[in-house]
Amino acid sequence: MILITQLIYIIEGQERTFDEFESIAIPTISKYNGRLLFRVRPTENTFIEHNIDKPYEIHLAAFDSEKDFQNFMKDEERKQFLSLKEQSIKSVLLIKGTEV
Q1: What is the pTM of this model?
Q2: E strands within the chain?
Q3: For residue 33, what pLDDT is reported?
Q4: Structural domains in the chain?
Q5: Measured between alpha carbons, how far is 97 from 2 in angstroms, rounded to an integer?
Q6: What is the pLDDT of residue 91?
């Protein structure tokens, strides 16, 4: 199993576009042996300390294998809506890990 953590930074004013993309991308995860473990939209008072910009959202997902994750990234339906992602997301910090 691999774990994917994403720190997502969106373009101000593009919240609705981002939510539209997520409404397509998130259900697609399960097609590839994946699960969204949590999706958090932190508020100002939830940060104890930070040395990087605060993300708009934090996602943690699990996939049974690296191949499953790669297949999710190549999903044709998801790829049709990547323009929504590009329009709304400034940057993403993606962290891959495994359960220990």
Answers
A1: 0.89
A2: 2-10, 34-40, 57-63, 89-97
A3: 97
A4: 2-97 (3.30.70.100)
A5: 6
A6: 97
**Are 15 and 82 a contacting pair, CB within 8 Å?**
no
Per-residue pLDDT at 7: 98
Contact indicator for 31, 83 with CB cutoff of 8 Å: no
The residue count of the chain comes to: 100
Neighbours of 64 (CB within 10 A): 13
75-96: buried (b, 16+ CB within 10 Å) or exposed (e) per residue?
Answer: eeebeebeebbeebbeeeeeee
Residue type, 17: T
pLDDT score, position 89: 97
Low-confidence ranges of the chain (pLDDT < 70): none
pLDDT of residue 99: 84
Specify the residue for token string 């940060």: 47
Which amino acid does the sequence have at 94? L
Distance CA 97, CA 62 (A): 9
